[in-house]
Write a structure and sequence with these properties.
Elements lengths: L2 H27 L4 H25 L3 H25 L4 H8 L2 H13 L5 H17 L2 H4 L5 H21 L7 H22 L10 H26 L5 H8 L1 H12 L7 H18 L2 H9 L1
Helix pairs in contact: 1-10, 1-12, 2-9, 2-10, 3-8, 3-9, 4-8, 4-12, 5-8, 5-11, 6-13, 9-10, 11-13, 12-13
């Protein structure tokens, strides 16, 4: 797969994940708890991977299991912290703080994979972070931290680790192995939270309506999007992957506007444009351009 194709696939992933912001908000507003939301989406993810790719799952190797388990644990920690944080903070803060992992991932990859980032990665990360801050209205309204924001910041760390662990998976390993481990840990993590933090109490609500956003999260945000993520991320560096995934915040804002959670502002236009610029800075070979200009 060409790098450009991989980036396009990851952009599709961010569109789906962007829809996950209002879907999560709707799920919680309908009365579905954090534990049930994550347990259900993990169960759907796991069952779908088993249904379509069981042959690859049952031939899993020990090293694949370890990497998949680490990626899965980091992933479910990120989703649990993000879902908890969504209860106490607004969608803009959630989107901005989640995407701060763009600054963390180059250092994580350096430590865990011994891949030193290029100078342009730091510049791109800085532009991207400014763009997301504009998107979230941080420069106008400030960023007042509450307990929800702290949970969301923790989720950014967890998601960053998950992206790096996915990058550590061997290229010959079938993507379904990592997807299965992420889905399984998501289910088990959600179930553990449901049992120990929520007392295994099932709320009384209209499941015919409440199940719809949960199905979106399980089928699209988890099974489809995360499977595509694992496939495409093999062809780009963790730093590039993190920048592409920042478009999640742009699409998250767009979908939030569409569903009436927020209104359109110039911040969306300016912030989204800066995130696009950050990706261009990351992908352009400036040394090659300089040599061409010299010639």
């Amino acid at each position: 797969m060409k790098k450009q194709t991989a980036i396009i696939l990851m952009l599709i992933v961010t569109i789906i994940w962007g829809g996950g912001f209002p879907a999560t908000k709707m799920s919680l507003d309908f009365g579905v708890t954090v534990g049930i939301t994550n347990m259900t989406r993990g169960a759907i993810f796991t069952l779908l991977v088993l249904m379509f790719f069981h042959k690859h799952i049952f031939s899993m190797k020990k090293d694949d299991f370890k990497i998949g388990l680490l990626a899965g644990l980091a992933n479910v920690a990120g989703f649990l912290l993000q879902t908890i944080g969504t209860q106490y903070t607004n969608l803009s803060n959630s989107a901005f703080l989640t995407t701060t992992n763009v600054v963390m991932i180059p250092f994580m990859a350096w430590i865990l994979m011994k891949k030193k980032p290029q100078a342009k990665n730091y510049v791109a990360a800085a532009i991207c972070l400014v763009g997301t801050a504009v998107l979230a209205g941080v420069f106008q309204n400030g960023l007042s931290f509450n307990v929800g924001d702290l949970y969301t910041l923790g989720c950014a760390v967890a998601f960053g680790l998950s992206i790096v662990f996915v990058a550590m998976q061997k290229s010959e390993t079938h993507f379904a192995v990592g997807a299965f481990m992420i889905g399984l840990t998501h289910f088990l993590g959600g179930a553990a939270y449901f049992i120990f933090a929520e007392g295994a109490q099932i709320p009384s609500l209209n499941w015919k309506i409440a199940i719809l956003p949960v199905l979106y999260l399980g089928i699209l945000s988890s099974f489809v999007a995360q499977s595509l993520q694992i496939v495409a991320q093999r062809y780009v560096s963790p730093s590039t992957a993190s920048l592409v995934f920042m478009f999640e915040s742009v699409f998250g804002s767009i979908f939030s506007i569409m569903f009436g959670f927020e209104s359109f502002t110039f911040n969306l236009l300016i912030g989204g444009s800066l995130i696009v610029v950050s990706l261009v800075v990351s992908e352009v070979d400036f040394k090659s351009l300089k040599n061409q200009n010299t010639v």
